[in-house]
Design brief:
elongated; ARM_FBXO47; 3 domains; FBXO47 ARM repeats region domain-containing protein; two-stranded antiparallel ribbon; FBXO47; about 375 residues
């Protein structure tokens, strides 16, 4: 029955195959080859993809890459992470993804070879990530790409694979540009970029294979490098991404700033977090818990007092900038109303946060 189904699917033209046929075909191959040795399983997958189905193996056809990914994701669904990593090395003899990554490494500047960058992103996302159901397998395959690379290049690869796009190219300058109003919610494309980048960090926790290389400190170092790719990000974009990445990574960033006496950077990040939280209670609770955890690590009272002073200065600086705009003689009534609302929001955020920090410090002293 299985052989007949496979033969039937192979003889149907691609435009007539029903939705889900590639997943079903991969699932069937996975069942039929489950008792075979690993080398034979991989050999059969390569044979059906590149010989019987005649799919393009040079990464030039997006549709074929999607088909390979949907087939591969189901055929290897019950494989171990070790087997998944080995399958990547064998399939790469056709897809040549690692060679493309090596070419990208040799590029002095990003954005120069846009076609190469798009080819790397499409191949990895369509074949080895988006169609893979298990987070452990996603983390394993991502770790295979990042393995033994310098950390600055690991961060550049993360941006290349998951960062924002514009006009079918990687938008390398997206997070270094000024945005006029962070009180407005991000558009769909920007939210997708935050979501994709956060997935890159989250899946590394799900893979046993990747956990050996990625602990809290190494992920924090990777994040720090990412926030400088290719140039330093604006703090508001950093804050948006940290909310998507989750409380653990956000807390680790604040703890690192607090323990290393980077109190000015700590305060600027908190101010940006409050700004992009847009008065959402759930986000504000995340900020409070992260601040509380970082204060627990600061056993020296002088450190806490320094943080509070820098927080007051950070909010005061932003408020001063808004007031300067309001004092302009050329401001329109609509803009005046907008900035008054922004000033009101900033005052509310500052009052609530400073109140919490002062209360927290008094409780600790007692």
């Amino acid at each position: 029955m299985g052989t007949r189904y496979i033969q039937f699917v192979l003889h149907i033209t691609p435009d007539r195959r029903r939705s889900g046929a590639w997943e079903n075909l991969g699932r069937l191959y996975g069942l039929m080859t489950s008792l075979l040795p690993l080398v034979r399983r991989i050999q059969m997958i390569k044979e059906v993809l590149f010989n019987k189905l005649n799919l393009s193996d040079d990464g030039s056809c997006m549709e074929d890459l999607s088909r390979i990914g949907r087939f591969f994701g189901e055929a290897t669904r019950h494989w171990s992470e070790r087997e998944i990593a080995w399958a990547f090395s064998q399939l790469d003899s056709h897809l040549q993804l690692q060679k493309k990554v090596d070419r990208f490494y040799s590029c002095e500047h990003v954005g120069v070879e846009a076609q190469l960058e798009q080819s790397i992103r499409s191949c990895f996302r369509l074949v080895y990530f988006d169609s893979i159901r298990l987070y452990a397998h996603r983390g394993c395959l991502l770790n295979v790409i990042l393995y033994k690379q310098p950390i600055w290049f690991q961060a550049r690869l993360i941006y290349l694979l998951f960062g924002p796009m514009s006009l079918n190219k990687i938008d390398w300058e997206k997070f270094s540009r000024d945005r006029s109003d962070f009180l407005i919610y991000p558009n769909v494309d920007e939210e997708q970029a935050y979501f994709d980048l956060s997935r890159a960090f989250n899946v590394l926790n799900r893979s046993v294979h990747a956990q050996k290389a990625w602990n809290s400190n190494s992920k924090l170092a990777l994040l720090n490098e990412l926030l400088a790719q290719p140039v330093s990000w604006k703090s508001e974009y950093v804050a948006e991404l940290l909310f998507y990445c989750g409380r653990e990574l956000l807390t680790n960033v604040l703890i690192a700033f607090a323990m290393k006496n980077y109190h000015k950077e700590y305060a600027q990040l908190i101010q940006s977090l409050c700004l992009v939280a847009r008065q959402r209670k759930a986000y504000y609770e995340i900020i409070q818990m992260a601040v509380e955890d970082s204060f627990e690590r600061c056993t020296i009272i002088a450190q806490r007092n320094s943080i509070i002073i820098h927080l007051q200065n950070a909010f005061r600086c932003v408020t001063r900038n808004v007031i300067a705009v309001l004092a302009s003689s050329t401001i329109t009534p609509a803009d005046q109303l907008h900035y008054l609302q922004q000033l009101e929001a900033l005052d509310a955020q500052k009052a609530a946060l400073i109140s919490f920090l002062l209360t927290n410090q008094i409780n600790q002293n007692n």
